[in-house]
Design goal:
462 residues; alpha+beta; Elongation Factor Tu (Ef-tu), domain 3; 2 domains; eleven-stranded antiparallel β-sheet; 22% strand; elongated
C-alpha cells in the first residue's frame, strides 16, 4: 500500500497543476465589457423612462382636456334653461317692456338685473388674473371668461301650494305642494316613505342654495305663462317640517296681479297655478390657484400653472371664489365665438344667411359685458346682437403638459376661413415669465379642442 501511495499522489498532483483561474488581463477585459453593456442598458433605460414620462404628461393633458370639454358642454347646453335669455327685454317677464318692474339693475341689483343666458367677457381671464396675464403675453394669447345663467342643480319645476308676503326675511314665502312628484323627489325616498326633516333639508338646500350663506335666484311661472324672479334669503333659504310642504324664503317680494295690471303676477293660494324652480349663474375662467399640494415641485414652473375653474355667482353678481371647482389643471387658453341670429325682430324664421359667426369684435366695441348683453344702455334693442340673439356657442379650450420638455417653439396652426377661433391652435406653451429661447427646455406641449353647442333654450325668443 505504501509503495502505491506516491504514484497516486503524483498522478493527481499533476492533474491539479493543469487547473488554473482567469488572469488579471482577462478579468479587466471582462469587467470593461460588462461596464460597457451596463452603461448601454442604463442609457437606454433612461431614454425609455424619460420618453414614458413625457408621453404620460402629454396623455394626462389630453385626458384632462376631454373631461373639461365635456363638463363645459353640459353647462353651455343649460344656458337659459328654466331662466331667461335676456332679463332686460324678455317679453315673458311680467310687465311691459321698459317698465321698472322688469329686471333692471336699478330695481333688483346688479346680479339679478344682469340675468341672462350668456354674459361674455372678452379677455376676461386675461384681465382678472395677473399671473394669467403675464404668461398669456409671453405666449401671445388672451383667454376669455363667460357666465351662464340657468338651472344647474335641478331638472324639475315645483308646483306651488301658496305664496305669502311678509315672509321670514322680508320678501315672499313660497310653499311647495307635496302633491307634486317633483317635490316628492326632494323630500321622499324611492320606497315611497318620507326622508327625515334633516335629510330633506340637505337635498332642498343643495337644490336652491348650492353654496351656504349665499343668495341665489328662483323663477316663478304663473298660469298666464308670465314669469318673475326672486332672490332667496342667504341665511335660511328653505325650511321644512311641521306637516306642511317645504317653504322657500325670498328676500324680495313677488309681483302681484295688481302690480302688473292683471297680466300675470301672483295672489294667495297657487295650487295648479304657479311653478317655481331654482336659477343660478356659473362662471368659467382661467385662474392661478396656488396650492402646496398641486403645484409642481420645481418652483420655477409654479407661477405658470393655471387651472380651468367653474365658480358659482350669487344673486348680487359676485363670484363666490371659495366655491370654485377645479375642472382641469394646467389650462392655457379659453376662447369663445358665437353664432348669432342677425335678422330683424318679427321677420320669418331665419335662413342660413341670417345666422353668422361673430367674434367679439363683431359685437360692437370694447365694453365687454355691456356690448353683448346690452346692460347699462339707454334702450334695450331686441335687434342688437345681445345674448337673446345667440343660437350657438363655439369654444376653444387648451391644456398643456405639466412640465416643459421641449426646447423649440412651434408656430400655431392657422386654419383659413372666417372662424374667429382660427389661429389659436397652439402647439407649444412657454411656462417662463421671462420668455423662452430656442434650445431652452421651457416649452410644454399643448393639446386643444374646439366644439360648438346649440343653445336650445334660446330659440323661444326673438
Amino acid at each position: 500500500m505504501s509503495a502505491r501511495t506516491p504514484l497516486f499522489s503524483k498522478r493527481f498532483g499533476k492533474r491539479r497543476s493543469r487547473v488554473r483561474g482567469f488572469t488579471l488581463v482577462e478579468l479587466l477585459v471582462a469587467t470593461v465589457a460588462g461596464l460597457v453593456v451596463a452603461m448601454a442598458v442604463v442609457g437606454l433605460s433612461k431614454i425609455a423612462n424619460d420618453t414614458f414620462h413625457e408621453e404620460l404628461r402629454s396623455s394626462t393633458a389630453e385626458l384632462a382636456l376631454r373631461g373639461a370639454s365635456d363638463r363645459l358642454r353640459l353647462d353651455l347646453a343649460r344656458a337659459s334653461y328654466m331662466g331667461t335669455p335676456n332679463g332686460l327685454i324678455d317679453p315673458l317677464i311680467v310687465g311691459a317692456i321698459g317698465a321698472p318692474d322688469r329686471l333692471g339693475p336699478g330695481v333688483y341689483g346688479a346680479g339679478l338685473g344682469q340675468l341672462a343666458g350668456i354674459s361674455f367677457r372678452n379677455e376676461g381671464s386675461y384681465a382678472d388674473d395677473n399671473k394669467v396675464r403675464t404668461l398669456s403675453d409671453v405666449n401671445n394669447i388672451r383667454p376669455d371668461s363667460i357666465r351662464l345663467g340657468g338651472n344647474f342643480t335641478s331638472g324639475d319645476e315645483y308646483i306651488v301650494q301658496s305664496v305669502r308676503d311678509g315672509g321670514a326675511c322680508g320678501g315672499s314665502d313660497i310653499t311647495l305642494s307635496l302633491d307634486s312628484p317633483a317635490s316628492l323627489r326632494l323630500v321622499g325616498l324611492p320606497d315611497g316613505t318620507m326622508k327625515s326633516a334633516g335629510d330633506a333639508l340637505v337635498t332642498l338646500r343643495e337644490t336652491f342654495q348650492p353654496v351656504p350663506n349665499a343668495s341665489f335666484l328662483v323663477r316663478l311661472v304663473d298660469d298666464s305663462g308670465k314669469m318673475q324672479f326672486g332672490v332667496t334669503c342667504a341665511a335660511d333659504p328653505v325650511t321644512y317640517g311641521g306637516g306642511g310642504g317645504p317653504v322657500l324664503h325670498l328676500a324680495t317680494p313677488l309681483k302681484t296681479g295688481a302690480n302688473v295690471g292683471g297680466i300675470g303676477g301672483v295672489s294667495g293660494l297657487g295650487v295648479g297655478r304657479y311653478t317655481v324652480n331654482p336659477v343660478q349663474i356659473v362662471e368659467w375662467r382661467l385662474a392661478r390657484v396656488p396650492s402646496a399640494i398641486l403645484d409642481p415641485y420645481d418652483t420655477r414652473y409654479s407661477d405658470g400653472k393655471f387651472d380651468l375653474l367653474r365658480t358659482w355667482v350669487d344673486a348680487s353678481g359676485v363670484a363666490l371664489v371659495a366655491s370654485a371647482q377645479l375642472v382641469a389643471e394646467y389650462a392655457s387658453d379659453l376662447q369663445f365665438s358665437f353664432v348669432a341670429d342677425t335678422r330683424p325682430v318679427g321677420t320669418p324664421i331665419p335662413t342660413k344667411d341670417d345666422l353668422k359667426i361673430l367674434a367679439f369684435s363683431d359685437l360692437g366695441g370694447a365694453n365687454t359685458v355691456a356690448t353683448l348683453n346690452k346692460y347699462g344702455t339707454a334702450t334695450a334693442d331686441p335687434n342688437a346682437p345681445g345674448p337673446q340673439r345667440i343660437r350657438s356657442i363655439r369654444f376653444l379650450l387648451a391644456t398643456r403638459a405639466a412640465l416643459p420638455d421641449r426646447e423649440q417653439p412651434l408656430d400655431p396652426v392657422v386654419i383659413a376661413g372666417n372662424d374667429p377661433l382660427a389661429g389659436h391652435y397652439m402647439l407649444r406653451y412657454c411656462v417662463r415669465a421671462a420668455g423662452c429661447a430656442a434650445g431652452d427646455a421651457g416649452y410644454a406641449r399643448v393639446r386643444s379642442v374646439t366644439g360648438e353647442v346649440t343653445l336650445l333654450n334660446q330659440s323661444r325668443l326673438f
